[in-house]
Amino acid sequence: MLQLPLVVTAQVDLLLVLVSLLAFWTRLSHLNYPNAVVFDEVYYGQFVSLYMKRVFFIDDSGPPLGHMILASGAYLGGFDGNFVWNRIGAEYPSTVNVWSLRLLPALCGALCVPLVYLLTLELKFSHLSALGAAVLLLLENSLIVQSRFMLLESVLIFFVLLAFFSYLRFHNAPSSSWSRYSWLILSGVSCGAAVGVKYMGLFSYLLLLVVASLHTWKLIGDKTISHMNVCVQSVHRVLCLVVVPVLLYVFWFYVHLSFLNRSGPHDQLMSSAFQASLQGGLSRITRGQPLEVAYGSQVTLRSSVSQPIPCWLHSHKVNYPIRYDNGRGSSHQQQVTCYPFKDVNNWWIIKDPGRQQLVVDTPPRPVRHGDVIQLVHGMTSRFLNSHDVAAPMSPHTQEVSGYIDFNVSMPAQNLWRVDISNREAESEVWKTILSEVRLIHVNTSAVLKLSGVSLPDWGFRQLEVVADKLFKAHSSSLEWTVEEHRYGTSQEQKEREAELHSPTHIDVDRKISFWAKFVELQAQIHLIGNPVSWGVANLSLLAYQLLAVVYLLRRRRGLKDVPDGVWDQFVCLGCVCVGGWLVNFVPFLLMDKTLFLYHYLPALCYLYLLSPALLEHAHTHLLRYAHQPLRALCVGALAVLLSIFLTYRTFCPLTYGSPELSAHQLQGLKWRDTWDILYRRR
Question: How far apart are CA 170 and CA 66, in angstroms?
Answer without folding.
Answer: 26
